[in-house]
Request: fold
Amino acid sequence: AQRVTQPEKLLSVFKGAPVELKCNYSYSGSPELFWYVQYSRQRLQLLLRHISRESIKGFTADLNKGETSFHLKKPFAQEEDSAMYYCALKADSNYQLIWGAGTKLIIKP
Amino acid sequence: GAVVSQHPSWVICKSGTSVKIECRSLDFQATTMFWYRQFPKQSLMLMATSNEGSKATYEQGVEKDKFLINHASLTLSTLTVTSAHPEDSSFYICSARDLRKNTGELFFGEGSRLTVL
Reply:
């Protein structure tokens, strides 16, 4: 079954501390994974995708097929990083996404 | 970038009435749009996939007669909540992908908050 698991509903860290938001997936094919972010009172937007192997706003995520994970990391958290983060898996050619439950990240000053 | 707009952003209605929510892709064409429901402090729940020129595909457990979806053009999909009841109160979000891009990225509307009294 196709599934995306984000085990942490809430993650709270101090400003300047490293951040890791966990995401594990279950998919029989070759996965395409994304991280979306929703800042307060704003729409969901793409943060990064594993295919492009990019770093956005200091965040990176590496696809680990052995561990079926796509954890989101940032070495030094900033207050503006506080938001809801969703991990998503592209399920088929229709671009339907399978969503994780989301992790609320709070950066304490 | 591609922009998706929803209207209204906020609507209050009486129980038993119907409410229509529009989702427009402003600067691109979208043959496929997705409708989600988001409960407070919960993840997105895909309700249906809206296909331009054909019937929508509903997820299991979503009543198609309750949530009518019409995708009449390449830039507009509508969700009509028929005979709304308080339990239909929720945040409804649509998304679409830009056919010009082959990135898998979905562009989201700002959401529509429905409150049924």
